[in-house]
Amino acid sequence: xxxxxxxxxxxxxxxxxxxxxxxxxxxxxxxxxxxxxxxxxxxxxxxxxxxxxxxxxxxxxxxxxxxxxxxxxxxxxxxxxxxxxxxxxxxxxxxxxxxxxxxxxxxxxxxxxxxxxxxxxxxxxxxxxxxxxxxxxxxxxxxxxxxxxxxxxxxxxxxxxxxxxxxxxxxxxxxxxxxxxxxxxxxxxxxxxxxxxxxxx
Length: 201
What we know:
Blueprint (H helix, E strand, L loop, with lengths): L5 H18 L11 E5 L2 E5 L4 E4 L3 E3 L21 H9 L3 H21 L3 H38 L3 E4 L2 H23 L14
Antiparallel strand pairs: 1-2, 1-5, 2-3, 3-4
């Protein structure tokens, strides 16, 4: 009989992978970005820890928690509260935090399946809940931060578009919420004991 912990374990792994992809955005991997801004200087792509300018040559900012969101080539007429945007960019660290919590939920799920442990499944449910909350907050901030920045850029006459990292985040959060539900139901399920759990007599 399949372990009650298995569905939650599988969903937690899926969430961890999706949130990992969102976390390795610029300046780590410029192909997965949250926002793309096109200016005469080139295309600026934004990620969790910084940004990259793709022109004749690629230049990236240093990795940091919180960074300057001003795209290269934007005129001074673009009205943005840089202090507020810089502070909001610090909250992007929630993406890897949510991914790490998802991974911990997966590890607890593996233990729950391998050892037929209700306790490990309960821990998987707790980590899934924490990961889902962190991911949900990250998603809400994403929608505010990147849409505000996108609208300011478009109003100034430039082109801007949301990147695929946003959809990795959406899918990761959805998987984490499903993992949380599956884990809580799994913790209430029937676990094998004795010979059924693989004990030797």
